[in-house]
Request: fold
Amino acid sequence: MTPVSTTAGAKPAGRRGPALVVLCFVQFMLVLDDNVVSVALPGMRDDLGFSTASLAWVVNAYFLAFGGLLLLFGRMADLLGRRRVFLTGVALFGAASLVCGLAQEPWQLVAGRFVQGAGAAMASPAALALITLLFPGAEERARAFGIWGGIAALGGTMGLVISGALTGLASWRWIFLINLPVAFAAVVLLPRLVPESRAEHAVRLDVPGAALGTGALVSLVYGLLRTGESGWGDTAAVGPLVLAVLLAVAFVVVEARTAEPLLPLPFLSFRFRAVANGATLLFSAAMYAMAFLLMVHLQTVLGYRPLTAGLAYLPYGAGILSGMWLSSRAVIRLGVRPALVISFLISAAGLLLLSGVAPSDEYASGVLPGMLVTSLGCGLSLPALTVAALTGTTEENAGLGSAVLSSVQQVGGAVGVAVLVALATRRSDALAAQAGLQHAATEGFSHALTAAAALLALGAVLVAALPGKNHHPEGALDAGEPAGDGLVVSAPTPPSRVVRSRTTRS
Reply:
């Protein structure tokens, strides 16, 4: 299977830059809404009358829909049209944001958050697929993914800052209403910049596979969210996890026997891409847990107010931008594999520095060094992971590859928060009786971040041990199907023989 250039040839090169800007702004908005509600939860509880237990679903409803529906909507983008699915998702996200901003009852806000997640699940993989097709060359794709990954990570960081500022200065409702102009601009501008594209050989949607795959992902995310709330001994958490395993097994059986599967099993057998997705799982688990644990540590142990804690993350965003700027250069000069190994080890070193933060430490001397090193590694890692995980994708499966990557990121984040936060809690509970609460909480925080650093080190080992002699991005991006002991690299396709996708104009 040789990757082919698609949409890039259908529009003048000058329009690809503005299209990338629009797509990145939308992704910034989607990732920002992953955690923008964190600081605003107390205000929502007071205004709408949430109970303590139900308040968590303002966050969980978004993750449940986003993580559970990615695979389905990613494949639909390939079959129905990537631009169409992207614009539908953005419009749905914008409408749901308006519902959230105007909510008068708890159920209205939770329902709006669920629909927001569904819109994000449509827009995010479709957007990444469009970028994959707009930038087919190795170097230009590495740069585009560098911008994409950096802006996405910056959205996650800025969500805390923006949430704290808007909640403190105006109202929590504005954290949703500010999405409306971004969504409106994307819906108006993108059709003028990007033509429609879909798989050349369109097939019918695999309904049984879609039902089983979506059910497995929803059950898995729901079970992990419940585990994070109530622990691994809760049957309400373990039951969905068991169901997720059963549905996943049934999904594999159905996909192996279906002529036109939702997720062709050979797609997962490409070793380079499989290892990249595995490394993404470990990376997401470590970094999502770090963000959660550090925010809690800043407020409960170091005594920061919510707005101050949000502002404390600003240097993290600067470090991510620096890493983003370096990432594409590292991928081009060193290759995907060495760039990933280096970036994972830098992030692991940063987490180890953060794990040593003591209650008496000042921000500049205690928190900031580890935050900057971690953010630099994060900025370096995300674009390289995206390049690696989309290795060998074609016009037939660009949306599917993007959806698999996004699903792995969401599941990895849920696993990381559930497991590492529970690890921190158990450690602190065990020490609380014989030490002060502050010391116990610090020990739990340190224990969990050390485990997160170990996950990143494991990811570096997996990537470094991957067989194959080709380390250069041209080889990685133009890799064909796997051989028995590594990668089979196809020669670059001559410009005169580039295959174009079927494009339509609205």
In short: Confidence is low (pLDDT under 50) at residues 1-14, 469-506.
